[in-house]
Amino acid sequence: MAYSFHLASQSPRRRELLTQAGFCFALLEVAVEECPRPQESGLDYVRRVVENKLTAALRQAATSLPVLVADTEVLLAGRALGKPADAAAAAETLAALSGRTHQVISRVAVASADRREAVETLTEIDFAPLTAAQIRRYCDSGEPLGKAGSYAIQGAAAGFVRAIRGSLTGVIGLPVVETVALLASFDVYPESA
């Protein structure tokens, strides 16, 4: 089957969401530094990472098809929490999120040789208060590792969420409604539509 754009992402969740939406795409493997700078806001960090991914992907793309990149970060008090280095770091992050409201920002960018466009979603999530035992069990499962903010809302952490205001798919890793519209502006449409 022919593909209509390049996806520069290592996230299996992004691949799943795009496939469920009916898109055919080719994967590009790009690696950029994903570490917040001192005093850098979470929003500025996400924008910088997406721009760096997009530049790297455009250099690597072998065709003139559009390239899509994305980044999703959990923000607490405006600061990007990142992915935990280990279970202890995950437990510390989850304790900080316990009983509080935090934000998840997803930024998606698409580019062709002569044009770049991006969209962002900001979703607020209220976490229930978590006990030390809940945090320990969740960290012992291994699920928090490799996840921004140390949790996967589509996994066992769904039980931590009291309320969500915004894009659920954005929290998972790709705001689908906004991404479909962004791709359409580049004349890329789902195969199943």
List keywords for this structure.
193 residues, alpha/beta, Maf protein
List the helices and strands and how they pair.
Elements: E1 5-8, H1 12-20, E2 25-28, H2 42-60, E3 67-76, E4 79-80, H3 87-97, E5 101-112, E6 115-127, H4 132-140, E7 161-165, H5 168-172, H6 176-184
Parallel strand pairs: 1-2, 1-3
Antiparallel strand pairs: 3-4, 3-5, 5-6, 6-7
Helix pairs in contact: 3-4
Q: Could you describe the 3D structure shown?
A:
- The chain has 193 residues and is of the alpha/beta class.
- It contains 6 helices and 7 strands, in the order βαβαββαββαβαα.
- Helices cover 32% and strands 26% of the residues.
- Strands 1, 2, 3, 4, 5, 6 and 7 form a 7-stranded mixed β-sheet that branches.
- Strand 5 and strand 6 form a beta hairpin.
- The model has no long low-confidence stretch (mean pLDDT 94).
Distance between the termini: 15 Å
CATH class: Alpha Beta
Order of helices and strands: EHEHEEHEEHEHH
**How many domains make up the 3D coordinates?**
1
Rough outline: globular
Short description:
Helices cover 32% and strands 26% of the residues. It is an alpha/beta fold. A hairpin with a 2-residue loop joins strand 5 (101-112) and strand 6 (115-127).
